[in-house]
User: What shape does this take?
Amino acid sequence: MEQWSFPPAYDESYLPPADSRYWFPLRETMPAGERERLILERLKQVCAYAYEHAPFYRSKWDEAGFHPSQLRSLEDFETRVPVIRKQDLRESQAAHPSFGNYLCVPESEIFHIHGTSGTTGRPTAFAIGRGDWRAIANAHARIMWAMGMRPGDTIAIAAIFSLYMGSWGALAGAERLGAKCFPFGAGAAGMSARCVQWLAMLKPTAFYGTPTYALHLAQTARDEGLDPHDFGLKLLFFSGEPGASIPAVRARIENLYGARVIDCGSMAEMTPWMNVAGTAETDGMLCWQDVVYTEVCDPQTMRRVPYGQRGTPVYTHLERTSQPMIRLVSGDLALWTDEPNPCGRTYPRLPHGVFGRIDDMFTIRGENVYPSEIDAALNQLPDYGGEHRIVISREAAMDELLLRVEASEAVSAAGDARIAAFRDEVAVKMHRMLGLRANVEVVAQGTLARTDFKARRVIDDRQAFAQMRAKVDAGSAA
Assistant: This one.
């Protein structure tokens, strides 16, 4: 296949013809069975490399009775290679600071350090070698080409430049693509107002951020007397949270900007995180299997589920040499298919993108609900004001769901009767789509705080209820 070696060795001067749909036509359109035979050979190389260089994998695989020499089929890989989880990585870095005993290159070869924030525990450090950084840039440039971006296009990157990998990966890809890079960033007070002025002035071709921030930016533009259509964007590509593959959310953003919306993004640990990404012609996310090998697995058995079923994506690097992830469990939920793609690429696809993290699912009166499903339902309502909060509480012995929902300015201005009608409309929508009843509180547009990063809309106060109840019970027992 074109420029497919391990370790990676890309021709940095290569660009396909401007009118080509594909960056690497052979790799992207070959029969899936032929690609899988080549992936198996690559997996043998990757596993042998990790076994030799990473005590983390050697110990885990020895304990499981697996040796890379035993790898003869993809089924062997699926059944004999144990999965790893984020907790395993944290424990490795705690015992072997700072980068864990799965770092496969000397620390002197580390080029970039990124990581998690550590707000809920020990942060995880991502050590990326110089060669890996170039491989990430090449992979992202190729996938961004598939989205429709070309050399000379202006690409606005409106995401935080910090430990967060999303903004840096998008920038590396844009630079390799030969685009005019506009790394505006996000996060500082007043930055959104400045951003819309810059977008109106520069009129970039493409915009990268989160769906939540794109919606916030559109409202900011209107507040500044600007129409987002006038930015002249042709496409917006997003990662970091569900939304871009939810039809109602995608349609809302496309209508606000008059531009195509493309979904992408897996995990920071798996960078190049665009290894699941849509294209100019194909919605959802393709699994770019020759960059990162993706399995969608049963969360209990970690065996692949058949196409057409839901499971959790499990990822394996095929090009990383510094901190290779081999069968890393994402903890997300997705459905995958293996059908013809409008763009002609022969990869499996996540047609609905990533639904969200399995851990984010909550259960109300026996119904399993994902926050993204509530996002989708609300974005179908014309009078939705653009922001909401999901409050899960405990009344007596029953869980209750309260939705605090912003209404449009027109609804708020129309008075109590119109507000009450919108409240009833939200309640009926929730019941029809989710099969549960919700208490709805309507608030004015702009009441709820916006974010320029990932949205955090779920407030679960059942834990506080449980703690209080435990204290009451303890007091009664005494």
Notes: Confidence is low (pLDDT under 50) at residues 464-469. Residues 161 and 167 are 6 Å apart (CA to CA). The radius of gyration is 23 Å.
